[in-house]
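INTERNAL AUDIT FORM
Audit reference: QA-55
Scope: verify that the stored structure record matches its stored sequence.
Auditor: D.O.
Record contents follow.
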Amino acid sequence: MSSLIEIDNASLKFRIYRDPSPTLKDLVVNTLARGRRRAPVSEFYALKNIELNIQGGERLGVIGLNGAGKSTLLKMIVGIYPPQTGRLVVQGRVTPMIEIGTGFDVELSGRENIYINGGILGYSRPEMKLREQAIIEFSELGEFIDLPVKYYSTGMYGRLAFSIATMIDPDILLVDEIFSAGDAHFVKKGTQRMLELFKTSQIVVYVSHSLDQIRELCNRVIVLHKGEIVKVGDPGEMTNYYINQIVNSSSF
């Protein structure tokens, strides 16, 4: 079965909660406003009326300003934030490269976290057993693999998380920025691994602020702005549109 992502008129709202304990200033303002009080909860569209069809063979780039909804779109596809309206259909095993390492139990060793994170990614213990040694070797942690993760440096933590997340065979790969943590040697090795995954995955959805990478790696691009897809098309045309109509325009 070929991989597929279909998003039909999907929307997602987030809530903002105000402090339930008003300050003296709030009380004065409310009194002067003739008793009118602001609602304790407000809502905004994180994603609105998203229409998107992604077929096997596509490398879809997602660009937009901070807060445009790029990471939220990936989280909706993987199921972290199901759409509140509309329809989402995903065919194929999804591997999310989103905030990798967030599922680590810092009290456990790196080796134990290999199996925990593997389970989060949908792999069984026997499947992770087959990958264990390759993950340890790629992370270059050596004997530190049996040390509790809470004692890892930021670089060690990142290397282990990246090694686990990329030692997989994805149908659909969701990437929120290419790996860039650690020393120059590991960044180079990690980038090469990501490029290999891009080639072997049936579908790639890639969020990045690097327009050069978007043009190089993607064959279609969407521009997100304030939670909506405002433009879809060729990578070169879409990055130019993004720069001219959004980045350089204060009136958009």
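Auditor finding: record pair retrieved intact. The domain at 96-170+177-200 is CATH 3.40.50.300 (Rossmann fold).
Action required: none
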